[in-house]
Amino acid sequence: MSELWTVARVAKFLDVSKKRVYQLIQQGRLDSLKLSPRTTRVTRESVERLVAEGKARQREELGLDWIVAPRKRRNVNE
User: Fold this and answer.
1) InterPro entries attached here (predicted)?
2) Which domains, and CATH codes, for the chain?
3) Is the Cα torsion angle 20, 25, 23, 48 positive or negative in sign?
4) Taking the model in full, what pTM does it have?
């Protein structure tokens, strides 16, 4: 089973509000467990998946989807 994070921890990790985390849960973009009426936990795996989707989408929108990994820079003085 995946590690469970609080909504506050997810919000801090993603640099968004707790309200936005709840919206992502409602949209089905984050997997969560309702432990009690006032306690919700989000799976770490779903947070990582969301971050990976965002990075892929960002590369695609910028036309950089063909880039696999950044290249090392050479020092021109060598």
Assistant:
1) HTH_17, SinI_DNA-bd
2) 4-61 (1.10.1660)
3) positive
4) 0.71
Span 50-75, average pLDDT: 68
Yes or no: say if 7 and 30 are a contact pair by the CB < 8 Å rule. Answer: no
- Sheet containing strand 4-6, edge to edge, reads 4-6, 39-43, 32-36
Full 3-state SS string of the chain: CCCEEEHHHHHHHHCCCHHHHHHHHHCCCCCEEEEECCEEEEEHHHHHHHHHHHHHHHHHHCCCCCCCCCCCCCCCCC
Q: Distance (Å, rounded) from C-alpha 54 to C-alpha 46? A: 12
pLDDT tens readout for residues 8-57: 999 999 989 999 999 999 999 999 999 999 999 999 999 999 998 887 67
- Using CA atoms, how far apart are residues 76 and 4, in angstroms rounded to an integer? 47
